[in-house]
Structure formats: structure tokens, C-alpha cells
Design a protein that fits this description.
Largest sheet: 5 strands, mixed
Shape: elongated
Number of strands: 5
Radius of gyration: 14 Å
Strand order of the largest sheet: 1-2-3-4-5
Helix content: 10-25%
Order of helices and strands: EEEEHEH
Oligomer: single chain
Length: 102
């Protein structure tokens, strides 16, 4: 099964489609700035769960973040868990530079 993942900036999300199907199999919603991309929601169609759609979304989105020199804020539990299981992407994670304390 081939999964095609594309950034759809006008919808602020990545979309995954399975070869031969017209419907979107999964999405990864984001908020993007010039320095940061925050992944806020990931959803995979129930018929495609366990088929690698979520992993394809994460891998493609994170590879493109790396190419664009963006830091990643993984507020979405799926992205946070996926990055935790793939240490080769942990260097992308956003680290706060604030030194403010209460």
C-alpha cells in the first residue's frame, strides 16, 4: 500500500491518501510560524488505522520541518508519542528559551 502525504497550507494540515482511493485517509493539523510548526491534531480514518497512515503523516511532516529548519512543538498526543518512539526526530523539538520563573 502506497501512502501519499502532502502539505496543504491553505487548510493548515498535511493530508494522507492511499493509492487508488480518492478520500483522505488521515490528516495532521498544524499551526506554523517562521520558526516553529506546532502539530495540534492528527486523525486517521478508522478504516486505515494500523495501516501506517499516521506514521507516514508524522515522518513526512517532520522531514519537511527539518528541511525548512523549523522547530517542532508536538501538542498532539500522537505526534508527541511518535517522536518519543523515534529518537532520530527528537532534535527537532522546540525548547523554550525563557528564563522567567514565578
Amino acid at each position: 500500500m502506497t501512502i501519499d502525504v502532502r502539505d496543504v497550507p491553505e487548510a493548515t494540515r498535511y493530508e494522507a491518501r492511499v493509492e487508488g482511493e480518492s478520500e483522505v485517509a488521515g490528516i495532521a493539523q498544524y499551526i506554523r510560524t517562521t520558526e516553529l510548526i506546532a502539530f495540534v491534531h492528527t486523525e486517521v480514518d478508522p478504516g486505515h488505522e494500523g495501516g501506517g497512515v499516521g506514521s507516514a503523516l508524522a515522518r513526512t511532516a517532520l522531514d519537511q520541518a527539518r528541511q525548512a529548519n523549523l522547530r517542532v512543538l508536538a501538542t498532539c498526543p500522537f505526534f508527541a508519542g511518535w517522536i518519543a518512539r523515534h529518537p532520530e526526530y527528537q532534535d527537532l523539538l522546540y525548547q523554550s528559551r525563557s528564563r522567567v520563573s514565578d
